[in-house]
Amino acid sequence: MRVKLRNYGYYADLLGGPLVELEIPGSTLGDLFTAIRSRFGVDLGARPNLRLIVGEKVLHSFPAGFRLEEGAEVAIVPVVAGGDWVVREEVSMGRRSVVSRHRGTAIRSARGEERECTGGYSSPG
Description:
Order of helices and strands: EHEHEEEEEEEE
Number of strands: 10
Distance between the termini: 29 Å
Strand content: 35-45%
Radius of gyration: 14 Å
Mean pLDDT: 75
Helix content: 10-25%
Largest sheet: 5 strands, mixed
Low-confidence stretches: 101-125
């Protein structure tokens, strides 16, 4: 089964770029994590500093049996700030993007730039 990974922040560096298509041996989140570990050497299950967005659903935990559809898009978003964290996906002018709202002290962009953030919405990277 093929899935598309939309990787944000440093996950784009770890997982082969901002958009990667990956063949997985089954149809569950556990199968996806196994394929990622095999191909990139990254164990996402051991990383508490991320959120996954599968379609319209934000996953704060990663149940291995969670079913993925053929061609599913999975956004991998790093949690990079303390405080309140809300992630949502938007479509604007035909382009999908993940937007995050932070109420913490700082956020770090994909380029490694750190800036203070007191609230509001920003697009990672």
